Amino acid sequence: MKRLIILALALAIATTAANAQSDARLKTAVQLAAEGLPDSATAIVNGLLAVTPVSDPFYPEVLYTQGSIARTTMEMQRAYQKVAVEYPNSPWADDALLRLAQMDFASRNFAGTVRGAEQIRANDPSSSLLPSASYWAARASFELDKTADACAWITRGLESPTADIEAKNRLEFLQGRCAGVADTSPAAAGPAAPPAAGSWGVQVAAVSSQASANNVLADLKALGMTGTVVNEQGNLFKVRVTGLASRDAADAAAAAIKAKLGGSPFVLVP
User: Fold this and answer.
1) pTM to 2 decimal places
2) What is the rounded CA–CA span in Å between residue 131 and residue 150?
C-alpha cells in the first residue's frame, strides 16, 4: 500500500511539474514522462545536465525536473535533496523541499514532513508555497497527535496572502479538527519601542547542513558582507547578516543579496 501511495504521489508531482517548468525543453521532458516515454524524457534531462555548468541558475531547475521524471522514489528523493541542499538560494529549493515533505508523509515519516515545512517557512515566511507546506505539516502533526501544532499550521496557511481558494478549502476542512483547541495566540501587545540601531538583519537562507551554510557564508563574503549561522532544531542552519543600522539598510542588503545570489532573503525585524 505504501508503495502505491508513493507512486501515486510521484505521478501527481510529474503532472504538476509540467506546468511549472520555464524551459520548453524541460516541459517536453515532463510531458514525455507523463505519456509513458521515460527514456526520451531522461535523455533530454541528462543531455541538459551534461552541458549546463553547475553554477548556472538553470542547473537546479534541470535537477528538479530530473526528480519529477525519476522512475524510482530513491532517484526522485536524491534529485530533490540535491536541489534543496546544494542550491538553497535557487527559486527551486522550496519546491524541492515541499516535494520531499510530501514524500516523507507518504512514507509515514511525519516528523520529516514537519521539518520540511519548517524549513520552507524559515527560508521565506511569505513563500507562495507556505499554504501547501502548512497543509502537509498540519496533516503530519495530527498524525503525531500534536493537535495544537497542527492547528497553528492551519492558521499560518490560512493567513498567508498567497493562499488561493483551493488551498483555503483544504485547510478549512482540516480546521474542523481544531474545535475546542485552546487559542494559544499571544495577546495583542502595546505600542513597541523603536528598534535600537544595529538590531536589523537579513535572513539569507536556511539549509540542512553546516557545509551548505559555509557555502552561503562564502558567497556573502564575496559580496563584502559578513554572515552568521544560527543552528536551530539540530538540523536547520539559518544564515543571516546582522548588525544593520536601519530598516533602509536591511532592505538594501536584502535587495543586493537577491540580485547577486538569488533566493528569497527577507528582513529580520527587531
Assistant:
1) 0.69
2) 13
Range of the domain at 208: 200-268
- Strand 266-268 and strand 228-232: the pairing is unpaired
226 and 264: one domain? yes
Sheet holding 236-244, edge to edge: 228-232, 236-244, 200-207, 266-268
pLDDT digits (tens, 9 = 90+) for 208-221: 788 888 988 999 98
Same domain, 146 and 107: yes
> The domain spanning residue 245 has which CATH number?
3.30.70.1070
User: Residues 104-115: pLDDT tens digits?
Assistant: 999 999 999 999
- Residue 216 CA to residue 86 CA, distance in Å, equals 10
Residue 76: inside a domain: yes
Crossing angle, helix 58-68 and helix 2-18, to 10 degrees? 140
Q: CA neighbours within 13 Å on the CB side: how many for 257?
A: 30
38: in domain:
yes
In a domain, 129, yes or no: yes
Burial environment of residue 14 by CB neighbours within 10 A (0 to 12, 13 to 18, 19 or more): buried
Say how many CA atoms lie within 13 Å of 33 toward its Cβ.
Answer: 28
* Domain-located, residue 12: no
Q: Rounded to the nearest 5 degrees, what angle is found at the Cα of 173, between the Cα atoms of 233 and 3? A: 65
Q: Report the greatest alpha carbon distance in the chain.
A: 62
Question: Which of 6-10, 12-16, 142-146, 180-184 has the largest mean confidence?
Answer: 142-146
